[in-house]
Amino acid sequence: MTFPLVPWPTSVVLLESAGAPADAPVEVVTEQGHGEEGYALRIEAGAVVIRASSPAGVFYARQTLAQLAGPDELPAVDIRDRPRFAHRGMMLDVARHFHPVSTVEAVIDRAASLKLNVLHLHLTDDHGWRLELRSHPELAQSASGTSVGGDPGGHYSIDDYMHIVEYAAARHMTVVPEFDLPGHTHAIGLSHPELLAEPVITDHIREITETYGGGGLPEQGVPYTALAVGFSSFQADAEGLETFLREVLGEIAALTPGPYLHIGGDEALGTDPADYRRMVELATRIVAEADKTPVTWHEAGVADLPPGTVGQYWGFRRPSLEGGEEGGEDARRARSFAERGGRVVLSPADAVYLDMKHEADSRLGLVWADGPTSLARSYDWDPATVVPGLAEEAILGVEACMWTETIRTPADVDEMMFPRVASAAEAAWSERAGSPERTWESFRERVAGLGDRWEAAGIGFHRSAGVDWR
């Protein structure tokens, strides 16, 4: 018998006794031996018992219990469970399209129900600065008014941000804020033009602008609303840059109780390579001095980073197909984090970038990550096989990413997030792909069983092909 459990637990044993009523009281026993997030759940003869070593373990046991619950009864089972990876994340881009606190709360609730434990907020980009700061209020005042396509913008007050952090913590999720630099910084130039270089306009920038429309070429001092990337950059020698970074990164660090602060580092296509390394090294050093662990996208692996810096890989599931035996430059940069005592978060774009179209004719999404990403393809990978030469102990975890060029509303978020976020959750929590229940055939049957629950919760999920939604 297959239960609608996603992610699949470490061990599930069907018991021969009777189960329990759906509303049976739950006994919670605190005991050692289950790890920081693990638990045991036993249902039999009308009794439901959770055993865990921490509140997080109890919380995840309750998520499993919610998935098992039928209209009237719970099955008789014995479950032992703990996650494969410590970092199980969901990234929400609120820079390209701003999403209010209520939408962020919904994302947290939905992610936590699948045992994800990190919310990565992409707070800054060419299109907007979305966090109020006491040290630099002009950033949000000048650069939060618009979104992609000229849509309305917005930003979070400090109270809003603290509420998000607390709301996530109550659901055992850690918030990781991202201030993307030295590229993706056009919005900062609206209030600090002295810190930015002039936009670098290439044929690629012109092609993207013409293909997607919705805004003109980037122009210094003018809000940017189109889709091209890679044209903006800080100036490495700008007077006041280090002071600015120390003030901004220091305040974001002080507002954030979690251990991580993400400084971006991706797609700095208009930045001189030597200047790029200098600015990334400066920013990560500032973060480390603020007692946070720096996180960067994998491109920053070329720089001399503080020991322990975490890299986030966003290349494809099989980089060895595009770069030779060892996976090419993307894989080499990803491995460099482990070589310096850090670890790697895996976000392969052709599997867990939730902004990719489901099918070619989908209403929302883009297709640059090797075309549309079906649910089957989002499931067809394993973290241990993505970066050649990267040992499993060097993998911190998995993170699904939702960029929001085309994603404007809460309904859009749900449509693009589900059901593919379940693939990422299983890759992050469950055993290796190919183990008995960690197969596409098992997953598509189990995820189908969650469709009614998602519908009842008001989640307008995409009914992916290949699944018998019932």
Oligomer designation = single chain
CATH architecture descriptor text of the largest domain: Alpha-Beta Barrel
Please give the radius of gyration in angstroms.
22 Å
Helix content: 25-40%
**Mean pLDDT across every amino acid position:** 96
Number of helices: 15
Structural class category: alpha/beta
As for the CATH topology of the largest domain, it is TIM Barrel
* Unreliable stretches covering 5 or more consecutive residues: 320-324
Shape: globular
Going by CATH, the homologous superfamily of the largest domain would be: Glycosidases
Largest sheet: 8 strands, parallel, barrel
Number of domains: 2
Describe this structure in words.
This protein is α/β, with parallel strands linked by helices. It folds into 2 domains: 11-81, Chitobiase, domain 2; 87-456, Glycosidases (TIM Barrel). The chain has 15 helices and 17 strands. The strands form 4 sheets. It has an 8-stranded parallel β-barrel, surrounded by 7 helices. It has a 5-stranded mixed beta sheet with strand order 1-7-4-5-3, covered by helices on one side. It has a two-stranded antiparallel ribbon with strand order 2-6. The longest helix is centred in the middle third of the chain and has 17 residues, at 273-289. It starts with 10 loop residues before the first strand and ends in a 14-residue tail after the last helix. 51% of the residues are buried. It is an enzyme of class 3 (hydrolase). Its EC number is 3.2.1.52. It catalyses: Hydrolysis of terminal non-reducing N-acetyl-D-hexosamine residues in N-acetyl-beta-D-hexosaminides.
